[in-house]
Amino acid sequence: xxxxxxxxxxxxxxxxxxxxxxxxxxxxxxxxxxxxxxxxxxxxxxxxxxxxxxxxxxxxxxxxxxxxxxxxxxxxxxxxxxxxxxxxxxxxxxxxxxxxxxxxxxxxxxxxxxxxxxxxxxxxxxxxxxxxxxxxxxxxxxxxxxxxxxxxxxxxxxxxxxxxxxxxxxxxxxxxxxxxxxxxxxxxxxxxxxxxxxxxxxxxxxxxxxxxxxxxxxxxxxxxxxxxxxxxxxxxxxxxxxxxxxxxxxxxxxxxxxxxx
Amino acid sequence: xxxxxxxxxxxxxxxxxxxxxxxxxxxxxxxxxxxxxxxxxxxxxxxxxxxxxxxxxxxxxxxxxxxxxxxxxxxxxxxxxxxxxxxxxxxxxxxxxxxxxxxxxxxxxxxxxxxxxxxxxxxxxxxxxxxxxxxxxxxxxxxxxxxxxxxx
Lengths: 261, 152
What we know:
The structure holds 2 protein chains of 2 kinds. By secondary structure, chain A is α+β, with helices and mostly antiparallel strands. Chain A has 10 helices and 12 strands. Chain A is 33% helix and 24% strand. In chain A, a hairpin with a 5-residue loop joins strand 10 and strand 11. In chain A, helix 9 packs antiparallel against helix 10. In chain B, helix 2 crosses helix 3. In chain B, strands 2-1-5-3-4 form a 5-stranded mixed beta sheet, sandwiched between helices. By secondary structure, chain B is of the alpha+beta class. In chain B, 38% of the residues lie in helices and 15% in strands.
């Protein structure tokens, strides 16, 4: 469990950001579920739950998600039932239990760049953008490639243009961490996105598979996802992940057919 | 730090470590139905409601609860009675260690889902581990409560 000398329930984003910048020993607490597994000692823990960042709305051609939106909201929010093929709800459903999903936040999983994230591969496949208090707005892909920095994640955006996604996960037991997560999205212009997570490293796109799918070359797409870099850990070997990635891609494509036809 | 919230309908004011969990706060307040099971946010035994929503108190920061309504199994007596009776009749209450958390999650489900399928019941309760019952008796008990309510 983490330790802290002070706990700040921030009332303004400016206040939270100023406190964060005040000391390298201050930190933001999101859902707190992964953070509690560590033993870090903070001077001040900064809580963002009173900033009104727990809403999902449609504006200016995007669906906007506050950083404090919970996984449970992704499951139950009527705006997301049909949008994006229902992939945002589907990707969090295998995560532990309802109580856990009420606490786990989008901001926590995205800002933490968690390598076993169920949500990041879906957001990445849907071309999500992030809005940070300090660094401003940028693509999630750019954000994930940046070294970890000190900032405040405020919002996530997904283009609301009819793009659809399907997601697949492999787990050794129900509610365990995914040992391989794969998402495929189809954009309105007919192009594809393919993302893989829990390799066991973090989410990456597979541009070769995306190009092959756009060209209708399924065999090449399967080869491309198998050629990504995979590693071994307690949950699965690199070889198993490499064998299963094309299987998950095939299942995603079947699902995509159902939601797009 | 001082934290004030409404605990089972009554105001509570506690002096707590800033990193204290809600579970620690509730036990400090004398609520001993709330227990730590796995201490890794996975077993559901420590489930309580914050503003009527079930959360894992082992991982919910006590400071975040300031000004909120916290409900434990001690605060849902009459509502829990029907469920507890069904659990007893189906042999679903054995060692009892997981029962307070299970009851809080099951009551939240009874409020939230109006006519769930067996799969929906399982999905809602999959975050509550029980090492005695094998879950079938719990599922029968919940189905019994739903059916009783539908018949009323």
